[in-house]
Amino acid sequence: MKKSILLISLITSFFSFSQDNYSKEQKIILDNYYTNGALNYNYNYQMFEWQKCLDEGLAKDNSIARLWSEKAMPYFKARKYEMGMPFIDKAVELNPKEYLPYRAFLKCIFSKNYKDAIKDFEESIKLNGNSYEMDHTYNFYIGLSYLQLNEYSKAEKLFKEYIDELFEKRQGLENSTAYFYYGISLYEQKNWQEAIVTFDKAIKQYPNFSEAKYYKAICLARLGKQDEVKKVFQEAQEDFKKGCKLSEWNTVYEMYPYEISPYHLNL
Fold first, then answer.
1. How many CB atoms sit inside 10 A of residue 127's CB?
2. β-strand partners of 75
3. CA–CA dist 163, 173 (Å, integer)
4. pTM of the predicted protein model
5. What's the pLDDT tens digit per position in 160-170?
6. What is d(CA 186, CA 16) in angstroms, rounded to the nearest whole number?
7. Strand positions, DSSP E, the chain
8. Residue 114 C-beta-side C-alpha neighbours within 13 Å
9. What stretches in the chain show pLDDT beneath 70?
C-alpha cells in the first residue's frame, strides 16, 4: 500500500510543473491542452490522442516548451528515441535552463548516448550548478556515463564526491544506489576488497539489494573466498526472485548500467 501511495505521489509530482515563466494566455493553453487534455489519456495505448491534444496546444502557441517536452516523453518510454529527440531538442531550444538537464538524463538513461549526455550535463552545470535531475545530481549521471565509457577512475571520483555531498550538504543522507555505483567503479579497477566494503554499505541501506550482492560475490571470488561466494550469490538469486533490484523509478522503462537479469544469476 505504501508503495502504491508513493507511486501516485510521484506521478502527481511528475505531472505538476511551474507555470511561473508562462504568460496568462500560455497558462490557459497548458491547462486546456495538457492538464485537462493530454492527461486524460494513457499514452501507452492512447498515443494518438495524447499527441493530438499537445499538437492542438502547439497550434495555439508553439513557444511553450512544456508541450514539446510532453510530446517527447512517451516516445522515450516506448524506446522510440529518434522519434522523441527532436521534440525534446525543441524544448531545450526554448528553455535550456529547465530542459537541457532533462535531455541529458534521457541521453544517459534512455538512448544511451553517453558522450552527448556528458556534454549536456556539463552545460547544465554552467546554467544551474550541480543541481538534481530525477533524484540525482548532474555529476552522478556524468559518473554513470563515464562507467559506460570505461573511464572508471573519473567515475570513481564523481561518485565519491556525490556520497560526500549527501553526507555533508544533505544532513547525512545515505543512498544505496550511490554506494552501489561507487562500488562498481572500484570493482572495475580490480579494487576488490574496497569494492566489497562499499557494496556492504549499499546492502546496509537496502538489505535485499540483489545487484550489490551479485557484484560482491564476484569480488569475493576474485579474492579466492569461495566459501563466502556461494552464500552471497544464493542471496542475490533469492532477492532477485523477490523483485529486489536496483531501486530507481525509471528501471520500469530501461535497464540501468550494471543492472542484472536472470541470465547473470543462472535463473
1. 13
2. none
3. 9
4. 0.90
5. 999 988 876 66
6. 38
7. 132-133, 136-137
8. 16
9. 1-20, 168-174
